[in-house]
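Standup notes, structure subgroup. Blocker cleared on the zinc ion input:
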Amino acid sequence: MEENHSDIINRLKKSKFRNSFSLKQKDFDYINRVGMDTIGRHCFDFVTKRLKDPSQFTDGKQTPFKGHPVFIAQHATATCCRGCLNKWHKIEKTHIKIQSAAT
Ligand SMILES: [Zn+2]
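Run returned:
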């Protein structure tokens, strides 16, 4: 049976590891300072550069655990690496496609 987004979110909520990631005040301050459009562009860049090309990084270690709110969100949502995308979101490692950047 195929899971929908709600099923995945419910599973993520039960994960002690995934729930250990939360944004701190400095993350909210940064988001407020640069704006969500910029955060969205950063997110696109990180995912494009770190997850699209499997030869670029050692799988499972593409996403740092600190340094940007998007990194924290990626760990919390299991979108941090191709392995987690496969395990949690059932996206085959070979099927990760990146759409062109939103304008
Ligand atoms: Zn991961």
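Discussed briefly. The CA atoms of residues 27 and 33 lie 10 Å apart.
Next: hand off to the docking folks.
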